Amino acid sequence: MSDCIFCKIVAGEIPSRKVYEDEDVLAFHDVNPAAPVHFLIIPKRHVASLETCDSGHRDILGRLLLLAPKLAREQGLANGFKTVINTGVDGGQLVMHLHVHVLGGSKLQHV
Ligand code: DGP
């Protein structure tokens, strides 16, 4: 998607502080952190939101979620972390490219 910020990050057109990368997934620090450690895990292929996922996205969704604890550990979040997937307008999704927020490094507000 040519006008998608996260697709531009994947393409290297917008710089990011990378946490992890493989063929299908990229993780990078959030530009506007809401916790001492705050990074995003995204599929490289454009997927607008959780709302647009179907059974064909099972593998990539599993990979995004399984990377969360692995990367959280690597980022030093030994006491736990929070994962958030904002979906749609009411869910507060600002960037319409599926992403998993991983936050930690302090005691975070309970939801
Ligand atoms: P959401 O509300 O779930 O769509 O959150 C989008 C997040 O993306 C928000 O926390 C800020 C982050 N973000 C937006 N633009 C950029 C960017 O250009 N670079 C980085 N690293 N993060 C961004």
- Ligand set: 2'-deoxyguanosine-5'-monophosphate
Q: What would you report as the Rg, rounded to the nearest angstrom?
A: 13 Å
Name of the top-level CATH class? Alpha Beta
Q: What's the mean pLDDT score?
A: 97
Overall spatial form: globular
Strand content: 15-25%
Give me the strand/helix succession.
HEEEHEE
- Helix percent band: 10-25%
Low-confidence stretches: none
Structural class designation: alpha+beta
State the strand order across the main sheet: 1-2-3-5-4
Q: Name the CATH homologous superfamily.
A: HIT-like
What is the CA–CA distance across the termini? 33 Å
Q: What's the total count of β strands? A: 5
Number of helices: 2
Number of domains: 1
The third-level CATH topology is HIT family, subunit A
Largest sheet: 5 strands, antiparallel
CATH architecture descriptor: 2-Layer Sandwich
* Assembly level: single chain
Describe this structure as you would to a colleague.
Helices cover 21% and strands 22% of the residues. With 111 residues, the protein is an alpha+beta fold. It has a single domain, classed as HIT-like (HIT family, subunit A). The N and C termini lie far apart (33 Å). The mean pLDDT is 97. The structure holds 2'-deoxyguanosine-5'-monophosphate. 2'-deoxyguanosine-5'-monophosphate (DGP) binds next to strand 2.
Main attributes of the structure:
binds 2'-deoxyguanosine-5'-monophosphate, globular
Brief digest:
The protein has 111 residues and is α+β, with helices and mostly antiparallel strands. Helix content is 21%, strand content 22%.
